[in-house]
Amino acid sequence: MNPAGGRAAEPDGLDAGRVVQVLTTRRAGPGRRGSGYRVSGHAVLTAAHVVSDAVSVRLRFFTEDGGTTELSGEPVWADAAMDIAVLRIAREASAGGPGAAEVPPVRFAGITRPVECEALGFPRFRLRLGNASTDHDDPTWYRDSHHARGTTTPLSYLRAGSLEISVEPPEYDPEPGRSPWEGMSGAAVWSGGYVIGVVSEHHRFDGLGRFAASQVKRWYRLAPDRISALSDLIGLPADADRLTQLPLLSPPRPEAPGPDDAPEVQESAGKLAREVYEQWRREGRWQPVGDPSPLAVRFGCTERNVFDHWANIRRAPFGTVAEPLPLDGRLDRIVEVYESIPSRRLVVLGEAGSGKTVLTLRFVLDRLRARAAGDRVPVVFGLGSWDPVTTSLDDWLCGQLVRDYPFLDAPAGQRGNLAGLLLDEDKILPVLDGFDEIAGGLHGAALRALNRTTMPLLLTTRPAEYSRAVEDNGVLTEAAVIELADLTVDDYADYLHRGSRPVRDGGEDSTAWKPVLARLREEPDSAGAANLVKVFATPLMVALARTVYRGTPGHQPSDLLDVEKFASPEALQEHLLAAFIPAVYDPTPTGRGTGRRRRHPERAQRWLGYLAAHLHELDTRDLAWWELGTTMRLSSRMLVVGFLAALAFGVTTGIGNLPVDLLATEHGLGFALGRGLTVGLLHGLLAGLVFGFVYGFVSGGAPREPSRVRLQIFGGTRQTRAKFLPRSLLGLGFGLLFALALVLMDRCLVAPLGFDDGLDGGLLGAILFPLELGLGVGLVLGIMAWLEAPIEIGSAVSASELLSTNRKNVLFHMFVWMLVIGLPAGLGFGLLSDPVGVLMPGPVRGLLAGLVFGIEAAFGGGLGYGLSFTAWGQWVALSRIWLPLTGRLPWAVIAFLDDAHRRGVLRQAGAVYQFRHARLQDHLTQVSQPHHAFRPSGSPGRADPDRPGNRPRPEGRLDSGNTRHSRPDGTCSGTTHGGANWLPGAGRESRG
User: Does the pTM of the predicted model rise above 0.70?
Assistant: First the structure.
């Protein structure tokens, strides 16, 4: 039977399924009865006098049906002065009981003022006659439970150091010589979800409504080795400074919407909250650390000297004593802990892969679920792209908001845009992820910039970088600091068991992980176990191991203990990273209609390796579709864009000349084909040269940013319409020059080759054609500027949707080119009174001319403009054609990225993708570099000898990697969320 009864344990308070009645037998005299509480999978906390001189101990638990079951136990730690003891449930007795990971840890606290409290035990006055007894049989008695509720104060029993528990007294005292509370000793005393003591004794002189308890705070008077042993057994904080103090500060009420909140502020803040929630809710579905059971990621107040005075953190009045805040907890308490900090400024320390990303995700989702109208909206910002020397914090936050949520780029009067308005109105709660990812040498500047503001925030970082910054520049003012704890075997045992294929031997459920976990518990210092314990200290590696060994043929978790295969923790890490991609891209069919395309692991790894190397070359963690291919030389990109522009313009011009020369002249088919081929080649060459050089000039080496506007007839703003005249003049000049070049080419090259069709219009045509084309191009660009409008609030922000918006803009651009150039040409040729060849005046001639000129304009001018000036055109040229053609990416790139996202390889952060594990990105980079040669792309970058990637790993800690990716000109290269450090020695040269 299951002693815990299968109940859903309450990690934040008293759970009846873990209450124990302790029954002992002694060498001399009658046995004793007491109470206790199961504080871990195999440990029960009780009073020392209950088990003193015990020959045997039985532990009686409640079962689901209200019955009881007994397990044997043995004392393993006791202290008579404190009157507390720890009993271990015998392993053979608990074999059928719940695993250790199913018993959440208990939280302990001290009290500084009177608080309410409760205890559940088995006092003597609850003695009852069993239902099975009769008048003719010996009576059977049992003690039922009693839930004592009352108050306690730290000011009574000061000399004894005990807690005085005041409760409602029992109404009947059958034996004045014995205490009715007999048997209550050992019961845990709870307050606010914390254990604050253990019931120890009842003084008759105090009356029946009071008894004493050994208080947790006093246990720290024990010798260091004794308190250390007790801490290991029951999860007590190692020192008194880390002990939570009750009562907790009541968090302030949620801020109500201000009476002066403009409607656009309320609407945009509400829309942003919904977008952020949906974004991270979708990401949470693909987080492997929470399926099917979550990893027990824990945190507590750091022991490092890196935080402000408690008086400043609590914003206490001058002259008052400020006690430390209770900051210990698990992921499900992160919002509660954050809101208990009056300054609302919290720093989260954690080594790479320790769970910082999962913590930020949980924080954002839980905060948004409880958000009231007018509250700040938590938004995750990756600090790796911030250069605090060149860009202020507000400007950088504003730019990141616009990148990931394009509707916030809409104008907002004198405030600039909606992103700036929300920042000015204090509607954004920055969740700053990756302080350590800021470029080396800039941590101090970043910390000083953060100290110039008192805005609420949550900041995550690795401890080493933050400690150095604090040592040189002082603490982050008013900020509390917590640190993520290493995982223990009990933390991940259930996670690994429930995520792997069950093995039933003799009716008992087991998994392939059982012998491995048993080895980690029983022989943690053996060579193979010690390596694995060190690797499994972080959720990242535990999640990878569960994925790799989830019933995959040929993979057994016991192999991880083989020191001949894996001589070091680093070798284990590399093995898990190398096996991850083949595991998630299992080529075995998954069934009909699953919607997931089968991809061979080797091809998927090759494509992912290119993406990782691409990000490595750009020095970023953000995989933006508009940056794919930009690691090529600028000259190579100019050639690709120029070739496609030449192909589009040349083919349409050559084909368009065929019907014109066949119908408008007396030349035959041979002449039409020869002229079409000649004109197509020469005009295409000119277009390729022009648009290729224009692309290089406009790009300047940096990738084209996607357009965050939509096109519509009504809805433009004053700012967008102000671009009408400049764009029109630009188009006029460009069109004039391009048309003159075409005229010169036709007169100087085409005609001498014998392909003059006599339709050039002579001198008048040489004058009118440039004017007509210049005015047409100017009108096209002006119209497009007039039709631009900011992306509306209802629009989504995913990478595929932003790509779709840009594609629609280019296609509409081509349509406008067709109308503006083709319509006047059709009207002009249709209304001319003179015949042109065999074509007589009329609608047929006009339609033919309009189609020819319109199609040439759409594909020659419109598509050339899209290739040269837009991110979508660059995407088509490089990512949809060139990279798949050379085998570096699949043809359906976005489908591949979405599929990798669903498989848990990538995650989506606003408009960009990221590798879910930055260490995986580094591993793929390392293994793919022999296959992918990269040359300087001309994109900005800088060499930094002190950057995180070139620093050695901290001794004693496995590195999972982090990066930074800011640029010297202050531009932002994207958002990161968590991750891993660049591999040692993987420095990169500055790109020029």
Answer: no
